[in-house]
Structures are given as C-alpha cells and as structure tokens.
Design brief:
mainly alpha
Length: 314
C-alpha cells in the first residue's frame, strides 16, 4: 500500500473503531487480518471510483473515442463526447461499457469491434442504433461467429458480464439487450429528456431520481441489479446527470449481500433481511464518510477473500 493510501486506511480504521464503539457491531473485522484486508479493499474502491473524476479533468486524445484505434476507451470517449455537447453518445457509451465490460486480457476489444462495426466506417452510434435497432441485430447476427472465433484476437465480456450472450436473436442476448435499452429511452425522447423529466418528477431530489430510474431500468434485458447500479452510478460520476444512490442496493445482490452479512455478523449466510443490511451499510458509510458505490464495491470484493488481500478488477 502506498504511503498516502496507508494514511487513508489509518483514518478509516479510526472511524471503524469509533463506529464499532457506538454499537455498529462489526464482528466480521474483529480479526486483525480481516480488518486489514477490508480497509485495503475500501482504499482500492475509493481509488477506482475517484479515477473517473480524475480522467474527467485530464486532456484526452481523440483516439480514445475512435473505435478503429487500439487506444479506444468507452468511458474516455463518453467524456470527449460530453465535452463537445454530444450527451446522447456519452450516455450510449456508458451503457455499452457496462453491457460488455472490460475483459482483463482482451480489454475493450469486444465492445470496440461491435461499436465500430468491425472497422467498416459506419459505427453503431446512438443515432444509428436507436433509429433502427433491428438493423443492429441483423448486423450482429451476420458477424457473430467472426466476433467470437477470429484467431489471435481476444474478444470477451468482462468478468461481471461473463455469462452474457453475444447472440443477436436470443431472448437475453446482446441484440435483445440493445433493443430493450432503446425502448427504455424511447426515441425520439432523448437520454437527457428522460433523466431531466425523472428529476423534475421528484422535485429535483438526486437520490429519488436514482431510485426511480433504477426501478424503471429493470425492463432492460440482461441488466440485473449490478449492471443497473453500475450504469447509473457511472452516469452520476461522469456528471451526465445529477443522480446518486442512497444505498448499496443489497436486495437482489450476491457478493455485496454476503460481504455485508459477513461484516455485520461474522458469517456470509447470516439471516439478515436485505433491507436491514442496506440500512446498516448506509449508516456505516455515513460514519466513514464514504459513498455507496465505494461500500458496494468493497464489500463485494472483500467477501471473496476476507483475510488475504486480492485485487479484483474487470
């Protein structure tokens, strides 16, 4: 751990001790090794979440938005599109980044080749895809085998999306996911209009807006709790819309729920209701001065290896 990270961890540990003394009850980190690893996962998550605000203020190469370039990065591309006022493409790239994910060895290659239509010069931009999602599905069907099996090129979904199908026509494949996302936005309505109308419907409450959008996004095929949470939190971090979560959305989760259960009971399988765990996580986050995305990410990763630090990415 770097010196500045050690200082951050020491501060977090002092707050954890104070929270425990006030009755938070954290048996999962009574063991020194568990506590040390949990703190390191918190620091990792803080770094991961803050990375977006860091790159949002950097000068970025235009190649980051070019799917024909090996430098392509959908999140940096979203920032570049936002800077020139193309918010619709920025929202779309966030969706694609979550749907495909970043594969450890292969990086963004699968997303890049689908979005860039395999270098054909006619990328599947939001304007093109939303105008005719059926055409996107036809293109995907025609190129699916090539995308999956071309020798020497690694094209895979990211770890959180490893069970996702590239299929154009299956009920839960990529084609269905893209078309259902287009339906969720419902052109000619724009992303900006959807988010603005939702914000106005709850009198400008950023947390209530997040919750409304979270619930409505359940219609997007293949987007479960984790994908919806990741998409909406990224929209907030990129400042595409003023939204933020009020909880870690433990309900329906696996890793974060087991992590919260382990932290508050000492067992991954404790009989806590998810709603109760969500409240406890929210209260602890306030004690620690951390955002809900940091807590959700750290709990999920910590429970995989609670006494020995292992970095989890992708």
């Amino acid at each position: 751990m770097r010196p500045r990270d050690r200082d951050l961890a020491a501060g977090l540990e002092a707050r954890l001790v104070a929270a425990n003394s006030r009755g938070a009850g954290l048996p999962g980190i009574r063991d020194d090794a568990n506590r040390s690893v949990f703190l390191e996962q918190l620091v990792e998550s803080i770094r991961r979440v803050s990375y977006i605000s860091v790159i949002d203020n950097r000068q970025l190469s235009g190649s980051r938005a070019n799917p024909d370039s090996g430098l392509f990065d959908p999140l940096k591309a979203a920032i570049l599109h936002k800077r020139v006022g193309d918010f619709e493409e920025a929202f779309w790239l966030v969706f694609l980044s979550v749907h495909f994910g970043k594969h450890r060895p292969g990086g963004w290659r699968l997303l890049r080749d689908v979005y860039g239509a395999l270098g054909s010069g006619t990328s599947w931009t939001w304007r093109r895809t939303s105008a005719d999602p059926h055409a996107f599905r036809q293109w995907l069907a025609e190129h699916e085998r090539y995308l999956k099996s071309f020798p020497g090129i690694i094209r895979h979904f990211g770890n959180h999306r490893k069970y996702q199908s590239l299929s154009a026509w299956s009920p839960t494949g990529t084609g269905a996911a893209v078309e259902s996302y287009v339906d969720w936005i419902s052109p000619p309505r724009t992303h900006q209009t959807l988010f603005r109308e939702t914000l106005e419907s709850v009198q400008g409450d950023s947390i209530a807006t997040f919750e409304r959008l979270y619930q409505s996004m359940e219609t997007v095929i293949s987007f479960g709790r984790t994908a919806i949470f990741d998409y909406l939190t990224m929209i907030g971090k990129l400042r595409l819309a003023p939204i933020e979560p009020d909880g870690a959305h433990i309900i329906g989760s696996t890793g974060p729920r087991m992590g919260a259960s382990l932290l508050f009971s000492g067992s991954r399988q404790a009989p806590f209701r998810s709603a109760e765990l969500d409240i406890r996580v929210r209260e602890l986050a306030m004690e620690l001065g951390l955002g809900m995305q940091v807590m959700e990410d750290a709990l999920c990763n910590w429970q995989k290896s609670p006494s020995r630090f292992r970095p989890f990415r992708g």
